[in-house]
Amino acid sequence: MTDPITLTVDAIHSWADDPKGPVALCCKQKLVPVEGEGGVIFPPTYAGIGYNIDELADGTKIATIDSVGSQANRMEPLFQAARPGQPENPLAKLVPQIDITYGNEKTVSILEAGHRLGDAVIRSSELKDEAQKAFNLFLDAKDASMLAKLAPTSLVFGVWDSRDTQAKLPRLVQSVIRAWDVQELRRSAQYNPALDYASLEVFSEEDKQKAEGKAESPLAQRGFVHVPSTGAHGGVVARGPIERTVTINLVALRRLHGENAQNLKRYILGIALVAAAEPLDGFLRQGCLLVPDAEVPSEWVAVARDGIRTPVGLSPAIALDYAKAAASRYGVGSDRRVAFKKELAQADLKELEKKKGKKAKETA
């Protein structure tokens, strides 16, 4: 590893401008449960498999603690404007605040939409035509300028307009948390009702005997009888490290084009740096509260094309200062409120049915 880079504005500019510059910025951060090393943590569960645990050839088991998609969905709302009564969020000024109104004056931010600009809620709103135009401009001319003005975080965290134009843009920021050398645990529990409802003649003793211990019975589902729960997922213990790895893809960044291309790339870089450097809330889910290991400081490195890794002193403050200046030069898109349109959602469904019908005729 070479000597650290002095992180000047020009040095950061070069990450966006220089085609021979580093291919990526990477950071590996060691995490620990708040209970300390060896504490039990609960990974996410997935339909059909439970925990996502992979086993290497040597028998080492690696658990996904937070996936790439989940990490992106945690980072993107960092840029959302503060709700009433909350302190002002300086990151919110870096991106346009676009809210979709629905129902009885309810709103959802575009920063909360799982598929970003390609989400169904966008196609079902007054933003539909503009989003489609932005995606088509990218497809036809590789021009990302409309996307940068409308939904810059879609460029940072990636977007696939899979249900319309098929435009697909890669993630610039990718983050994942894995635990190494894990041992899976199990847990059991016993539910005891507060009263003996059979003795109170809510139902018969015979009904009670038939229902007890059977979680699928109506009496058990409503909490009227004893129900044991055995062999459920009980979390994992990591005998190896729990690591969060973050990558900023500078090659993909430099491939962005459009009007005022240099400032566009610097603007998107600024948002990417902020998203990657900003500390995340470590409460991932019930039973999984993680913090950085104070004894193992994390470090950002710039990875050159020849594989040489050079430390860079990237910090949240440096990233934010750069992003503010880049946003000011490029110009942040306008804040807006657009309405959800039920008829657009219904038309979207009809369009799918029409496509299915056409495909069925072609294959008949």
What's this model, at a glance?
This protein has twelve helices and 18 strands. It is of the alpha+beta class.
Describe the structure.
By secondary structure, this protein is of the alpha+beta class. The chain has 2 domains: 9-180 and 239-353, no CATH class; 183-235, no CATH class. The chain has 12 helices and 18 strands. The strands form 5 sheets. Strands 1, 4, 5, 10, 13, 14, 15, 16 and 17 form a 9-stranded antiparallel sheet that branches. It has a 3-stranded mixed sheet with strand order 7-6-18, with no helix packed on it. Strand 8 and strand 9 form a beta hairpin. Helix 1 (9-17) packs across helix 10 and helix 10 packs antiparallel against helix 11 (316-330). The longest helix has 22 residues, at 342-363. It is globular and about 80 Å long. It starts with 8 loop residues before the first helix and ends with a helix. The model has no long low-confidence stretch (mean pLDDT 94).
Distance between the termini: 61 Å
Q: How many helix segments?
A: 12
Order of helices and strands: HEEEEEHEEHHHHEEEEHHEEHHEEEEHEH
**Low confidence ranges:** none
Radius of gyration: 25 Å
Biggest sheet architecture: 9 strands, antiparallel
Whole-number tally of structural domains: 2
Report helical residue fraction. Answer: 25-40%
> Structural class from helices and strands?
alpha+beta
Shape: globular
The counted number of beta strands is 18
Mean pLDDT: 94
Approximate strand percentage:
25-35%
